[in-house]
Specification:
homodimer; Maf protein; seven-stranded mixed sheet
Chain lengths: 193, 193
Amino acid sequence: MPKEKLIYFATGNLHKFEETRLILREFGVATAILNVKSLEVQSDDLEEIARTSVLHVVAAQRLPVIVEDAGLFIGVLNGFPGPYSSYIYRTIGLKGILKLLEKEDNRNADFRSVIAFCRPGETPKSFAGTVRGSISTVERGTHGFGFDPIFIPLGGDGRTFAEMAVIEKNLYSHRAQAVRKFAEWYARQSNNL
Amino acid sequence: MPKEKLIYFATGNLHKFEETRLILREFGVATAILNVKSLEVQSDDLEEIARTSVLHVVAAQRLPVIVEDAGLFIGVLNGFPGPYSSYIYRTIGLKGILKLLEKEDNRNADFRSVIAFCRPGETPKSFAGTVRGSISTVERGTHGFGFDPIFIPLGGDGRTFAEMAVIEKNLYSHRAQAVRKFAEWYARQSNNL
């Protein structure tokens, strides 16, 4: 029997919540969205950001919480936009990224995600996922959010994440991989209680 | 008489220290460099970043400390690179900024600085400085650091910050303005003790 019935996902991003919820449901884990502002430190390391953030939320809320931090890392731009993907999306946007890659042949990029989970009084556990891919030359698709319209996952048929419904994106995505790792660990340790 | 002989500037950036030290010396304030990693939160607000950071350093070091946070805010890019100027400089660099502004006529930008000062057991005080200017079309000059080679301050003769020696940059710069505001306040309240 699991120790708790419900896990709280601290995020203001409904897309992230939906992607995560669908996977956790497969594992029999129920999720609630917790709409709190969490502290995010400046760091090049998604894991450090996620772990600091989940500790902060758990200390304030006294609930079992997951947070997720993700970023798009473009090789030829030295990892830019990386951990600051959200700010950079809001300022220069897709247009800015495409302009920076104009006439650039090497368009390789990774999407990375780290899920950090913590219960009151415990140390956070974190789980990482990465999907390799490339940046398209034009925006395509209307699903998803953020840089989805310009990211083509490796191993797919050439469509961007924004050209896929959530269930299909979840076959490839960095976030889905991190969430699955978490869910497997969570199910395992719940069974051992 | 000042309450303390020495103020500690927590920074890993020797250029920032040198610019600040020269101004504080005019006010009779001696400074030491404190080379510690300080916590920086992700925020669009330089003041929030500086205040959180100084509290963190003072709590650990129990000394009178200043920290400074600064950013370049380009109007047509919605404030990018803003509070993440250091990361963005390290990844896409001057070249990336110039590419984003290719064929752009509106090149207006602000350099902003916030100095936060705190003594053990006290609330931080913060002081802001802004210099308006524009982004050059090519890099010019070898002085300074960061985006200095592409920033032309308003009211100057068209040279970039990197074409000026420290003393001259200090006539215009965002940082110099914030430091002077701090120094005036500091001298005033020291005299009242």
